[in-house]
Amino acid sequence: MDSIKVKDGNAPQWYEYFLCGIKGIQDLMKERGDSGRIKGLSVLVSKKLELDKPRWPMTVPQYEDRGFDLTSYSSMFHIQKHNISTLRKKIVLLPEVPGRVNLIGEHIDYCRYSICDIWSKSSWNSIWNLPFLICCSSFLQVPGRVNLIGEHIDYCRYSVCPMALEQNILVAFKCNENGDLNLYNIDDQKYDDYHSTVDTFSIKVKDGKAPQWYEYFLCGIKGIQDLMLMPSNTNCYYLLADIIAKKKDVDNWKDILYLGELQTKLAVSLKEMIDIADAILHPEAYTKEEVQEILEVSEEELDSDILTPNTRSVASFKVKQRALHVYEEAYRVERFLSVCRSDISEEQKLQQLGTLMNQSHTSLATKYECSHEALDSLVTCFREAGAYGARLTGAGWGGCVVALSDKSSCEALVTQVQAKFYTDQRTSSKPDLIFTTKPQTGAIIFQCDEEGGCQIVKYE
């Protein structure tokens, strides 16, 4: 092995930290009477460690006849910075390497005395017990996602405006021929494993309970994300589309299922669709009997053909408010994208985008009625702290807020909101409840061949 040469007055090179570890292993092997020689070693590191925001690198030991092969990479993996071909097909994801701090006992370990240190995240002992010891043929880096604008309209056949985050998840996977479905999390002390088959698995979210971590993956496998997001008592969009279509004397109105489909059928703009809904729907809630009369159906037909299981017990429906939210929110998405593509100044863009986000939250709170008192307070807190705009994001009824700021004001904005909103003991001890981020690229798939080389999979 090359020697470790740290020049006087200079900080060590990043790789010299690894070389110190290798040298230590060699010395230990010599002390125990082994050959004292590591036959081979490969190391891949995603980026330098940042003490203020540690990225907890994961290490993967792999023993082969030709020697000891180690590949290390972190959950914040950026393919453009590395030669991915150095990854091996037999990489196995294991719990991350924890940071370490020595509480007491300095400069005595090499005198054969014990010291007292702690691991900052996980324990080495758990590494060798992980059951996920399979040969992974593919890796997937999936960014987090936040919806900037366009809430509760995607299942009405309208586009939304999501943004990929810096925060991401790294997944290792391999297909099998026996139909087994196995999901593991490297934090196996906190998250239970899941075992089923592709043909028999089911998603059972108990009322009032948060989903299990693996059920988010099961939603993706089954392709029912939209269905899982449709909230009770407000997702009667078949009903909304049918009422407007019937009042507009649309041919075959019973075949129209979505508000977006109705707009296409009428061949009008979103602005015109807003005017239509506003003109023909009354603001008072429609009773179930009134809906039956308009649609010319019996209660049994309404329940079986139009309503969903979680809306059949509802006695009245706020048709106008829900329909207007969908059409107006879809129109805001169009305007949001138009502003982003315009040639106006950056300051003007931020101001106009913020206004649209504020309008979106008002609609969600008053017309869709999916906000919450705490969410409204947090949105107000962001706006008063200087955000251009803020709104709830996600399903609502609690959850998250997204706020728009320029780069220079981000840290001050976060500091003000933390000081004003996150003041009780339960939230002040969790600094990650609020964080800054910026747009990133989407998901990346790495495919490994029989020789162990990996490359990005591109889809046309």
UniProtKB/TrEMBL annotation:
Gene Ontology MF term list: ATP binding; galactokinase activity
Sorted UniProt keywords: ATP-binding, Kinase, Nucleotide-binding, Transferase
Domain Galactokinase N-terminal: 97-116, 141-174
InterPro entries given in the database record: Galactokinase, Galactokinase_CS, GalKase_N, GHMP_kinase_C_dom, GHMP_kinase_C_sf, Mevalonate/galactokinase, Ribosomal_Su5_D2-typ_SF, Ribsml_uS5_D2-typ_fold_subgr
Pfam families reported for this sequence: GalKase_gal_bdg, GHMP_kinases_C
Domain GHMP kinase C-terminal, chain residue ranges per copy: 347-422
A GO BP entry: galactose metabolic process
GO cellular component: cytosol
Protein name: N-acetylgalactosamine kinase
Organism of provenance: Diaphorina citri (Asian citrus psyllid)
